[in-house]
Design a protein that fits this description.
The complex is a heterodimer of chains A (about 325) and B (about 325). Chain A has helices at about 1-20, 25-35, 40-60, 90-130, 130-145, 150-175, 180-215, 215-225, 230-265, 275-285, 290-320. With about 325 residues, chain A is mainly α. The termini of chain A are far apart. Chain B is mostly helical and about 325 residues long. Classes of the chains: A mainly alpha (about 325), B mainly alpha (about 325).
Amino acid sequence: MEEQETQAEDQRQELTDQFRRPERNLWKDAFTQLIANRLAMGSIVIIFFVFFIAAFGPFLTPYDHLYQDWDNIAQPPTRLHPLGTDELGRDMLSRILAGGRTAIMVAVVTTTMAFVLGVMIGAAGAYLGGFADALVVRTIDFLQAFPHILLAVFLAATLKPSFIRFGDSLVQQYGIRALGNTLYLDYLLIFAVLGITGWPNLARLVRGQVLSLRATEYVSSAQVVGAKEWRIIVHHLVPNALGPVIVSLSASFGGAMLTEASLSYLGLGIQPPGASWGMMIAENLVQWRYRPHLVVMPGMVLFVTVLAFTFLGDGLNDALNPRMLTPSGQK
Amino acid sequence: MKITAYIIRRLVYIIPTLIAASALTFVLAHYGPGDPLMELLQEAYWDEELRERVRHSLGLDRPFLVQYGEFLGRLMQGQLGYSILSGQRSINVMLAKAWPKSIQLGLVGMFFWFVSGTILGIIAARFHNRPIDYIIVSTTVAVSTIPTFVLAPMLMIVFILQLGWIDSSIGWEGIFSQKIILPMMLIGFTGTAGLVRQWRSSILETISQDYVRTARAKGLTERLIIVRHILRNAFTPILTITAASLGGFITGSIFVEQIFNIHGFGWLVWQGIIGLDYPVLMITTLFSAAIILFMNLVVDILYGVVDPRVRIGERARR
């Protein structure tokens, strides 16, 4: 009798083992789905590559991006200069790599700033409610009433003289030579401008997430059971809001690169002789008829990089927000 | 009656926003660059007394709020101030000259945007989840991602240098010249991806509605089903994307007009940028914000016209 029972038990165990499905959770699912998305995987490869050249670019090229080769001015690609030289004899490959460094640095710093500001302000609005919340919403609406690039342009144009004065005064008072170098001031200016214009999107998202998640039943249940607020935040709000925030960060990463390139193109960002893809396009646009490759190369690099972030954002959106039907590309 | 109340309520919200925008631009334009006199003139030629007199005659020694109030008052009367560069020209005159070109270019561009986006969106929805759908969606995303200042030289290289279909694209000769083709495409392309996606998802959602099944069941031809039942009902969300794309058209026009040397609104912005002409930048930024706010209102009102189910008086009560 007993033996039969154990046998049946074994059989049952075997069957459950056979049909048991692997444990699933959102992150594993999302990862599997992202791996299956060929466009997103290609984008990740490109993004890793761009990060790589941003980190190690200066060690990879034979020339400094400011070095002028007077014997080879405005050359098409040759063995000496794999991507040719511009009209001042500077190696295009070195300059594109240096531009990548600028783009990645700006994107990393400003996205971090937008993330910190957006999360703090958005969460503050949602938690404090009342007047503070109204103020947050109105400020976001207000900043988003301007066309994004135009606001960035206006801020950059008006803040620039102050930054230059600031740098001058530092040099005069303390003798800090490094800050007299306007290139660092250009970076600071861009960080400030993109920090100011970058946070509203994220703040709106975080505020909405906090408000809607706090209205869910599982948060109410947690409250009923007597969970402390920090526990609700750590165990319920953060994990659930993380997906949309990651998607939005990927999109804003590409957006920051684009805005930096646009500002530099318009002459308000990185100034010559620094290197930025946007500025290289502006410098070489005048001679598009005679030396189209000088415009096409930085343009293509900028395009492919930004596109990679867009596709990665879409892939992450499909993977992390299965219920959300609208693609991340549109606001 | 309800609609009037709604419009008034919205205006009550728009006007403070615009005043705040004017305050922000004024503060930045006046305090950011530092002393406007120093920017204007070489200090070597000025002694202290003369500088004070000029400052007094320009009203720069008065308290900030008085200066801002005067700026706002002049703005209300339609006096937009004077450009620092280009010989103190009135910004009113500059804008009056610039607007017609920009509006024509914008309308042609939006027409191109709408027609191309609609056709591609319908095709993508018709063949959804098939290769042609993927190709359309990812290509339009790619095209809309390229910044205008990258796409413009590439299109010029292809159409002018390689193919030779167009002789030259630089300059403005009205909307019935071949010079308009590339600017029109570039303005339109900035928002194509959004429109295609919106049409696609909107149509796919409408297709599964009961009334479409009814129309099929009663034997309507496919063409009539698409035109009368699907497109008409799928149209409402398109209005949203139109309003959302407006900022893109305005910023797109800065780059397009700069590259193709079209002396319109965007070119004015560009001139303001390269000369750091703060009055011009201030007015153009304010104007763009005003256009966007008012167009959002217009679109919200149009909702009620296009879709009778939307009762806008009620939406505002939320």
